[in-house]
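Q: O-phospho-L-seryl-tRNA:Cys-tRNA synthase, please. Structure only.
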Amino acid sequence: MDLRIQKTYEALFALEDIREIFRESLPTGPDADGEKEIKRIAEELKKTISDIESGTGQPKVRAIGNSLPIRDREEAYINIQPIQAAGRLTADARKAIISYGDGYSACDQCRKPFRLDKIEKPCIAGFHRELAEFLGMDEARVVPGARRGFQAVTSTLIEKGDIAIATSLSHYTEFLAVENSHGQIREIPADKNNIITADSAAEKIEEVIRKEGKTPKLLMIDHFDYTYANEHDVYGIAKVAKQYDIPLLYNGAYSVGVMPVDGRKIGADFVVGSGHKSMASAAPSGVLAATSEWAEEVFRTTQITGDVTNRRFGIKEVEMLGCTLMGAPLFTMMASFPHVVERTKHWDDEITKISFLLDRMLAIKGTTVLSEYPRKHALTKVDTTDSFDTVSKTHKKRGFYFSSEMSKRGIAGVFPGATKQWKLSTYGLSWEKVRYLADSFDEIAEKYNLEVAK
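A: Structure for O-phospho-L-seryl-tRNA:Cys-tRNA synthase:
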């Protein structure tokens, strides 16, 4: 780890140690021993700050607690791991963790009706309204990840034996959400270009009606799938769903928070997004939004009554199990939200960056792009079987040489040993970093005598 990064963490930890003294003190302030300890830590902190300025000193903290290593992936490396690219916390989100990391911090000012999305201080209620507007929907809730959004919808719409339609490129959590409701999945096949089309969706619906004698209860479509990040015809498929009167769930795990998404324009009944994947939020976090037509069902309130106590639980929402995100995940999403809204306005810039990098990579003979090309998303699957993988045949490290070469250059995110087919994302990277990536791939290729077109 870079010494200045190490010392920065040590400075942050020292401040937390001081903070802990205040937490352990009476409201009147620390006692004499506490004041003495604050002064001692402050003196050490000054030395640490000096080490940061000069780049000198020795590491003092090796782990958090007994065994948790310090994570410097985002500080020391260019991280091209697709599932992490758009989930990097903003500085404001990291500050929110410092202030609101306690488990039930969202509940400090909870008043009747005792529901998360009704809390006004801090303005969680207002954030929910802004979130719905941002997604072009009528109502929204924060949930513990996109998968819990799928689960809320399937639990509402799917009963035992009911059929839901997904695709041959759908995420596994959509399948599990349907299975959890004892439903069945039928898949729309992708075409030869790994694209899901409206015609294929209509054909699948007709096939289900013809063979099973019933209409599917739900159609789930990923805007960009997790394998290739190809763009699927969500607008056309939404029209097909409407023709058959089938509710449409728009899976925006790789779109909500990185590009403009308007559920009304798309024709979606439900919009699901991932906070930790695409909204610069701590995991687990996600969003679920619905039109007014469906909000009353998916956000239905409890009606159950205890037979001994006659207890009822007010307006607690069944699919939310009363309340959902209560601490760090929620507040990081709220703190990042203004930045997320702004960055969606610059989606074209992100496409330009990935296109630049891929053009440079394609100049390395034998490299191909498995995703649709030209690209429409920063996440991309490439095939280097005939380029970088050829080196692994004779290298003593086999396929691990590639990730090792990248690590030497401060690049992380490719699974160790992967040299054939692998995914990357340039989302959120500066042009300086994108050019550095391109140059690094060239350097590795040239080092091992791979042909690179100039």
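A: Brief note, in case it's useful. The first strand starts at residue 63 and ends at 64.
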